[in-house]
Amino acid sequence: GVMGLQLPLVVTAQVDLVLLLVSLLALWTRLSHLSYPNAVVFDEVYYGQFVSLYMKRVFFIDDSGPPLGHMILALGAYLGGFDGNFVWNRIGAEYPSSVSVWSLRLLPAVCGALCVPLVYLLTLELRFSHLSALGAAVLLLLVTTLQLP
């Protein structure tokens, strides 16, 4: 063969179907109804202020910790076309149609969804059984699922 390769090339893969299932369920539970409610919820009051400042390129100092988390949220807002013109003054304030709620919530939701397969794999890495890993993943999966309306 060419350079020692034998044809046909064969690739064999193992797929952990439980990992795939909990990953898909996590994405589904975290991403479905992402735009609901179309109003400010909980931490958006706090983090939204920082996002608006980043969008307006206003310098600020925040003592709550390193700015990477705020910058990641601002990236999602930027990619969604958010211009920073929204007053984040109270929980329940309706978003105007110019604000893409979905894009503001997408990155945190994806990160939250990725925690479920991470817990599954971490539990296996700690040498617990596959059933224990599934149990840990399902518990984390249900944490926010049980809070949905």
TrEMBL record:
Q: Chief localization class? A: membrane
- Membrane topology, as annotated: Multi-pass membrane protein
Q: Name one GO molecular function term.
A: dolichyl-phosphate-mannose-protein mannosyltransferase activity
The UniProt keyword set, sorted, is: Glycosyltransferase, Membrane, Transferase, Transmembrane, Transmembrane helix
Query: Would the keyword Plastid turn up in this protein's UniProt record?
Result: no
Q: Which InterPro entries match?
A: ArnT-like_N (IPR003342), PMT-like (IPR027005)
* Any one cellular-component term (Gene Ontology): membrane
Pathway assigned in UniProt: Protein modification; protein glycosylation
Instruction: Show where the ArnT-like N-terminal domain sits.
Output: 22-143
> Where in or outside the cell?
Endomembrane system
Q: Does the keyword Ribosomal protein apply?
A: no
Pfam families from the xrefs?
PMT (PF02366)
Q: Which domain of life is it from?
A: Eukaryota
Where, by residue number, does the polypeptide cross the bilayer? 7-28, 68-88, 100-122, 128-148
- Protein family per UniProt: Belongs to the glycosyltransferase 39 family.
This chain's protein is named: Protein O-mannosyltransferase 1
